[in-house]
TrEMBL record, chain A:
Organism: Setaria italica
Domain of life: Eukaryota
PANTHER family to which the protein is assigned, alphabetical: EUKARYOTIC TRANSLATION INITIATION FACTOR 3 SUBUNIT I
HAMAP family, per the entry: eIF3i
Biological role: Component of the eukaryotic translation initiation factor 3 (eIF-3) complex, which is involved in protein synthesis of a specialized repertoire of mRNAs and, together with other initiation factors, stimulates binding of mRNA and methionyl-tRNAi to the 40S ribosome. The eIF-3 complex specifically targets and initiates translation of a subset of mRNAs involved in cell proliferation.
Protein name, entry field: Eukaryotic translation initiation factor 3 subunit I
Gene responsible for this protein: LOC101760206
Record GO terms (molecular function): RNA binding; translation initiation factor activity
Organism phylogeny: Eukaryota, Viridiplantae, Streptophyta, Embryophyta, Tracheophyta
PROSITE patterns: WD_REPEATS_1 (PS00678), WD_REPEATS_2 (PS50082), WD_REPEATS_REGION (PS50294)
Automatic annotation (TrEMBL), chain B:
Organism of derivation: Setaria viridis (Green bristlegrass)
Domain RRM: from-to ranges: 210-288
GO biological process, one term: formation of cytoplasmic translation initiation complex
Function: RNA-binding component of the eukaryotic translation initiation factor 3 (eIF-3) complex, which is involved in protein synthesis of a specialized repertoire of mRNAs and, together with other initiation factors, stimulates binding of mRNA and methionyl-tRNAi to the 40S ribosome. The eIF-3 complex specifically targets and initiates translation of a subset of mRNAs involved in cell proliferation. This subunit can bind 18S rRNA.
Organismal lineage: Eukaryota, Viridiplantae, Streptophyta, Embryophyta, Tracheophyta
Subcellular location field: Cytoplasm
Keyword set, alphabetical order: Cytoplasm, Initiation factor, Protein biosynthesis, RNA-binding
CDD domains: eIF3G, RRM_eIF3G_like
Known partners and oligomeric status: Component of the eukaryotic translation initiation factor 3 (eIF-3) complex.
Disordered: annotated span: 107-127, 160-219
Protein name as it appears in the record: Eukaryotic translation initiation factor 3 subunit G
Amino acid sequence: MRPILMKGHERPLTFLRYNRDGDLLFSCAKDHTPTVWYADNGDRLGTYRGHNGAVWSCDVSRDSARLITGSADQTAKLWDVSTGRELFSFRFDAPARSVEFAIGDALAVITTDNFMDHVPTVQVKHIAEDLDDQTDESALVITGIKGRINRAVWGPLNRTIITAGEDATIRIWDTETGKLLKESDKESGHQKTISSLSKSADWSHFITGSLDKSAKLWDSRTLTLIKTYVTERPVNAVDISPTHDTVVLGGGQDAMNVTMTDRRAGKFEAKFYHKILQEEIGGVKGHFGPINALAFNPDGRSFSSGGEDGYVRLHHFDSDYFNIKM
Amino acid sequence: MAAAAAQQKIRWGELEEDDGGDLDFLLPPRVVVGPDENGFKKVIEYRFDDDGNKVKVTTTTRVRKLAKARLSRSAIERRQWPKFGDALKEDAGSRLTMVSTEEILLERPRAPGSKADEPAASGDPLAVASKGGAVLMVCRTCGKKGDHWTSKCPYKDLAPPTESFSDRPPTSDGPPAAGGPAKGAYVPPTLRGGADRSGGDSMRRRNDENSVRVTNLSEDTREPDLLELFRAFGPVSRVYVAVDQKTGSSRGFGFVNFVHREDAEKAISKLNGYGYDNLILRVEWATPRPN
């Protein structure tokens, strides 16, 4: 396959997200300007100007009308996808790290970092259909997690919120009461910071990637550990194929050590593993720095990776990928 | 042509002086045609060249369809969205999106089609190694074949390492400190404990230290003459007179190697400046040949 290289960002990529139809790809980077691309040919459709800090994550509504972004400038912003117009800005006391729309797009979960005196929080905001009704108030605030929360996502049917972060523990919270329901086992769970979390297409299970050089597959309801995928490098990004029994892990050595070692030593590959057999299927090379973001197209026929090198690489799978027999 | 250019210049002269040719508003808008059914897209742009001429630039590109995409109606609608933000200012020449020139393959950890023998243990280096060349793999520590490499030997700590035998100095003069550097650090062969220290030294003595150079020899001086002259000072191990290969005559210098350094010293002090065959000899230590 000949990947499409998209050089729209000047700083390392942080997050990639496809819309539900899989025709748009949203990319976030540390250069303040989230960008939207056509996911088939890589043409840039537009940029969302207004943030004043690194943008850590984004999510797009089901109808691809609205985009929400969380940024280090202590805001989360709502955008009109088609025009790039800023619709609303949620202000926080600390950088907003992870954002996600709930099913129905009426709620959004936003996490804020531990910053100066502030403890990390998970906040749920109402997203009003009419912009005039939009408020800054939080419907729910969850505190009590130590260490930065790198990712917070909605559980099945919006009943729970799943969080993962620096303390290497995955937690499931009740969305109604804000109570802690489940916590991952210290023994079987990750040993180091969880850097990424990605749900399967039906939200029944999710995968977490960690700096302990492994990725783990969990059940979304019971939080039982299903599978473990072991690699050679810290994992920065993970995703699950929506159509095949494949997971992809991306990472590489610490960005600060990249210049001190050989390029091959960095292992800046997107590694594909068989979801069930936990066996490595293959690797896709190309980035000059660690991979920070990975996303499968919802049609399962392509995937994109974003690296510390500022490039987004869009790969359309060859037929041999679909014919792999284990 | 030149006249036309001049005319253009005069016509737009004043404006150009005002602001460096920012006349883009005078140009017809950009036209994009296609892509047609063959995937050819035509972009027609207008710009002014350096001489102020209006130039029509037609760029024909082939749009490759990279994936069979069944787009939903809303996705097709999104195709028609006008560009916004920074993408609006983007011109056709800014190559933000490029197709990689390099063919990137999904690199399989093993050859496609080959069955994994032990799927569960494929990550185990030992299993991988055993798949490689089981016949060649012989452990030098415990002698087991096909099980592990020497470095992976489980009995490595129990069995005395084989290197220590060969490393032990066969002669008494090698102090144990010489083999002292921690294992793993590189030690040149001449400095290794096992190397024949004394032999090496005597070799060096013969070659460099006890070698005496004799210059200003007369042409008909031969090696026996030189040996005759120097034997008086002590045992001589080698005598050599440089001979011109073409003429067969002496080139006027030679080397004498003594077995003992003291004898060489004596010879130098006595024979340097000694008149021999109408010539005054010059005898000195032979400097080691620069390598």
